[in-house]
Amino acid sequence: MVSLHRLPSVRPLEQDTSTCYAHGIARSLTRTLQILNIVPAGFDFHFYKLFYILITDKFGCDGKDVEEACKYIIYEYLQEQSKVKFRDLFSVKDDGLGNTGIVEEHRDQKNTEIDKINPRVRLPILGEEPLPIISIEEKPKRGKKPSEKILTIRPAEPEIAGFSKTLRTEFIIRMNKVLPYLIVIEEFYFFHSYTKDKENHTKPSLLMLDSLNKGLQPIVSMVVPADIPDDIFEAEKAKPDGVRQIDYLGNGDYNICGEDTHSVVLRWWKKDSISVKNSWGTRRFNKNHDGLGNIVLENDDISKYACYKNTDDPKYPTEIENIFITHITFDNILYKTKFVKEKYDEIHESGYSPNTDYTREDLAILGENELLYINLGETQMDYLIDNDLIDIRYLLRWIMSGEEQERFLENHDDLPELSNYLLFKKYLAKYQSKKDIKKYINIKDNDGNTPLYYAIYNITNMKILLIIIKELLEAGVDITIRNKAGHIPYDFEVARHDLDGEDEEIHQELLELLNPVKSRSSKSKSVKSKTSGTKSRGGKKTRRRVNA
Question: Are 45 and 155 in contact (CB under 8 A)?
């Protein structure tokens, strides 16, 4: 028996090319299949290697959008393979380094400059002595022959046999049962109000809480420094351990941001520390690296993993690059499946230790970050709404970008990318009972502010604001609720100024709608919706304090 936080995960590997995205997806997907009791004991590394090779063979070694690659391997490749009993999956051949390493050498990477610069390294099983560097011209001196299939190779543990016919049959049956319920969801963490010298505070989303409590390892993608200043690099290079001791990832001190993103997997997110598993290995500037691919950031703010860059805005002299988090999760209905329940019971009976110590009560007070969802399908949105994994206040912090607002006002049916707005609509539709309205529609933050306050405070396009306010009123939002400072939403709209033309007309209509003295059944003024030149919410702007 083994607790969830000690459930054997995939061994880390060192990457030589831009394949961090493939490492992250392969590791995260393997972890999900471990939790679902699909991957047999001792074969976690085999599946990691298998998915890595499939992804890089499809997309190459030059980096790829994580969400797109995730959807391909789950929604396309595995779905097609399920129709032929995963025939091709069992036919993927080993790369020549046995079951303890991956050669990042595929059809599009052979004999290129990157191969000459980066010799291949075979990593040992934990506890073994490191093997010498093997160049691409040399044949591996140890490990299995390249002609062997990955899922026929015996694992490192001598007591475990190879991937037998019985295991193969069991895998096919189980995989076919869980595959329709695997879900890929990407969420963006934005840090527009953060500055480098301020004590910023980011909190995990409800979806993140759900993933970590399940024992999953979401993929974290962020921009990292493109280079290290020459003086720091040379000083560190002269030390015995060389540049390995530069705290390159998880520092935030270097503002020379690159253009590409780097992907890692999240091991845990707790109140006092955050840990990721990295594919860079020990050679690439990780002071907090433990030699096993793990990096621990000893504070509670995930924004520290991203890169800071200088801006021309005196109010916000530094800006943090956004972080994208991709979840490979599953519908909770799978807990009713016998083999999934067996793994669940085994984990909990052995002393369950979740990968987070946050609770839903902790998240009632929002972090300072913003959350954005893009291009969600009905399955993803239903999963979030049905499992109560959406906080309406985050949706109202960023209901649409400036560009999306213009497109929405031109055509209300042009919504495929506007997932925050679509989630907002689904959220309102779900919570219509009197009890739900109080709990979800009129939910209060620590300062007593309801979603109505968040809409008035955050939505700067008056046409969009009018639409959102009307939808909230129709859903039953209470315009008489006062926050801890004694203000009602009407007071915040009264404070709006410097408006003219159509915006001023909308402002007056909002005052009428939000005034608790007047009848809420009075007819609203008619406002024609035209394209607005309102600045994108993504830009910097002066904010009014909600709890003033």
Answer: yes
